[in-house]
Design brief:
heterodimer; A: alpha/beta; 14 strands; 17% strand; B: alpha/beta; 13% strand; Trp_synth_beta (chain A); lyase (chain A); TrpB-like_PALP_sf (chain A); tryptophan synthase activity (chain A)
Chain lengths: 397, 278
């Protein structure tokens, strides 16, 4: 396979323009009250991303507070078991335990630049909430995080972490009481305070510019991994790049580093939360994308053992990559995920977040079925560590 | 410019010196819910907003959200609600309101055709701002449905002028930066927003969000042409109020608006519309 060959047309995973479109997806589907606020965020981001001072300040924060670059770890024993070469991009080793902090620091610095005085956010598994609480503490901003009641129950450790960091956690009791409802509530809250509050979206979802901006802040994963792969693999570029997808931020950041190469991009979704694999065209939370919904256009509940993948849609850029055939989206079951988490723990001494274990589960299955040819090289983004899932795993293992 | 099935009657009423009253109900909220529509008409509504419930109503506050959940739990669907409405013979224009996902499900053209078949004159889609409204605006215009656009206190003047120009039926002025819901007092930005919309447009302006008492309605219509009453009605319905009870509440609002008009208007025009409260 040729190295570094451009396997996509120019413009893919770049600036989506003023309308924030990725093919037919994306856009700005928000109440009129939020249009000005979104435009302001977009203008600020456009300015900041080319400002050397902002870039330097973010790079410094990522190095000093997050511990970047995160390592690329060869999964030697699991690779031997599977007959492939598996490299793990270790976002689980980033401060706060997941990739979420990359994006949050970027947005929090942007909020300061915009003169906003507090952060609001939604969270599913709690990792984004912890990242927001951490950045808020670091920068001296108050923060309010909305979290579905069900997630509050199953992610008690992260709720405690957020509160310890001084953040207000607001349980949301409407609807399915998960990430979807927390997102709705955060948007309602933002409408009421666009002057002071900065809405820190946690994934590549939401109205323009969020899907683009979050991907750009997460691009650091893919850029680092690309460089690290160049040093670690004889072909410089892996055959496959694999990441889990809920909204899809770690996958978007990872794919951005490889979209211009020959690597095959695989997004792994939860069976019960497969927006990209099984969703249909819709509009929710400010963007046009693929969503799980019934015949009447009502959004249906996503189900996943991993709270972070309990979202009924997928980021608009993933929908676009799917349409282009540039990325493929697959699903794995909760059982495969638990099995994968245990295998990675025992083979490599790493307990992954259940979200990340989705990506591991696909690699294990694909190696078994021959979909991954023997000797294939695979880069897998391990988006977070599994401490938060210990109580869930304790029940199942 | 010719005006549509919603805008014509609203303009006629306004130009006749009346303040406009548009109550809201969530379709399918209770068995026999169409009784509320009849009660609204009898109480002197100038138009009725008919909510087609959506699972994730992000611009609505707790009450409308609860109403949407309750209607969906009863099995309400947009098509089922429209089928029931099609059976009614109301002489008050109906304005459907819903989120864009429901429109997209059928496709804008088919969705608008379904509205027209049910006799609906207008459409409000709160999560579809001007920038994204092109396709639906074309489909609505082609089928004769008036697509109403929203304006907010945060909207800059140039954009506000464009919204007023492209809106049909009326301009829906959102009185507060926030979600739907009852509030103790009419928000300060409401009057300023109305003034700003009227600077560049003759289209009727209705003020919504947070208006629940006759006093607030009267205050709102000192500058706006009318008011939308949603949460205050749905709170009563969720608490068990029958159509007559809600009708009585609206009659009070109607009377307050009419009295205000009588005090400020000369010469007075007697209101002879059928079903309008004295």
């Amino acid at each position: 396979m040729a190295t570094g060959v451009l396997a996509t047309r120019p413009g893919v995973m770049e600036d989506p323009g003023e309308r924030g479109r990725f093919g037919e997806y994306g856009g700005l589907y928000v109440p009129e009250s939020l249009v000005a606020a979104c435009r302001e965020v977009e203008a600020a981001f456009r300015e900041a991303r080319t400002d050397p001072a902002f870039r330097e300040s973010l790079a410094e924060s990522l190095a000093l507070h997050v511990g970047r670059p995160t390592p690329l770890t060869p999964a030697r024993r699991l690779s031997a078991e599977l007959g492939v070469t598996l490299l793990l991009k270790r976002e689980d080793l980033a401060h706060t335990g997941s990739h979420k902090i990359n994006n949050v620091l970027g947005q929090a610095l942007l909020a300061l630049r915009m003169g906003r005085t507090r952060l609001i956010a939604e969270t599913g598994a709690g990792q984004h909430g912890v990242a927001v609480a951490t950045a808020a503490a670091l920068l001296g901003l108050p923060a309010t995080v909305f979290m579905g009641e069900r997630d509050v129950e199953r992610q008690g450790l992260n709720v405690f972490r957020m509160r310890m960091l001084g953040t207000e956690v607001v349980p949301v009791g409407t609807g399915s009481r998960t990430l979807k409802d927390a997102t709705s509530e955060a948007m309602r809250h933002w409408v009421a305070d666009t002057e002071e509050a900065y809405y820190c979206v946690g994934s590549v979802i939401g109205p323009n510019p969020y899907p683009w901006m979050v991907r750009e802040f997460q691009r650091v994963i893919g850029d680092e991994a690309r460089e690290q792969c160049a040093g670690a693999l004889p072909a410089a570029v892996p055959d496959y790049v694999v990441a889990c997808v809920g909204g899809g931020s770690n996958a978007a950041g990872t794919f951005a580093g490889f979209v211009g190469t020959s690597a095959r991009l695989i997004g792994v979704e939860a069976e019960g939360g497969a927006g990209a694999a099984r969703g249909s065209l819709g509009v929710l939370h400010g963007f046009r994308s693929l969503f799980l919904q019934d015949d009447h256009g009502q959004i249906t509940e996503a189900h996943s053992i991993a709270a972070g993948l309990d979202y009924p849609g997928v980021g608009p850029e993933h929908a676009h990559l799917r349409d282009l055939g540039r990325a493929r989206y697959v699903t794995v079951s909760d059982e495969e995920v638990v099995d994968a988490a245990v295998r990675l723990a025992r083979a490599e001494g790493i307990v992954p977040a259940l979200e990340s274990a989705h990506a591991v589960a696909w690699v294990i299955r694909a190696a078994r079925t021959g979909e991954l040819p023997p000797g294939a090289t695979v880069l897998l983004t391990l988006s977070g560590r599994g401490d938060k899932d210990i109580s869930t795993l304790k029940e199942l293992v | 410019m010719s005006t549509g099935l919603l805008e014509s009657p609203l303009r006629a009423r306004r130009d006749g010196g009346h303040k406009l009253l548009m109550p809201y109900v969530t379709g399918g909220i209770t068995p026999g819910w169409t009784g509320y529509l009849r009660a609204f008409a009898a109480a002197g509504a100038d138009a009725i907003e008919l909510g087609l419930p959506f699972s994730d109503p992000t611009l609505d506050g707790a009450t409308i959200q609860e109403a949407s959940d309750a209607a969906l739990a009863r099995g309400a669907t947009a098509h089922g609600i429209l089928a029931e409405v099609a059976e009614l013979r109301l002489d008050v224009p109906l304005v459907a309101s819903t989120y864009y996902n429901l429109v997209l499900r059928d496709g804008p053209a088919e969705f608008c055709r379904a509205l027209r078949r049910a006799g609906v004159a207008g459409l409000i889609v709160p999560d579809l701002p001007l920038d994204e409204a092109g396709e639906l605006a074309d489909a609505a215009a082609a089928t004769g449905v008036d697509l109403v656009l929203l304006a907010s206190p945060a909207t800059p003047q140039r954009r506000l002028d464009e919204i007023a120009r492209r809106s049909r039926g009326f301009v829906y002025a959102v009185s507060v930066m926030g979600t739907t819901g009852e509030r103790a007092a009419l928000a300060e930005p409401a009057a300023a927003l109305t003034e700003r919309i009227k600077q560049g447009s003759d289209r009727p302006v209705l003020l919504g969000f947070g208006i629940s008492t006759p006093e607030q309605a009267v205050e709102a219509t000192r500058r706006a042409d009318g008011v939308v009453i949603g949460t205050a009605i749905m709170r009563r319905i969720l608490d068990g109020a029958a159509p007559d009870d809600v009708g009585a509440y609206l009659t009070g609002l109607r009377r307050a608006l009419d009295q205000e008009c009588d005090e400020t208007r000369w010469p007075a025009t007697p209101d002879t519309r059928r079903g309008t409260a004295p």
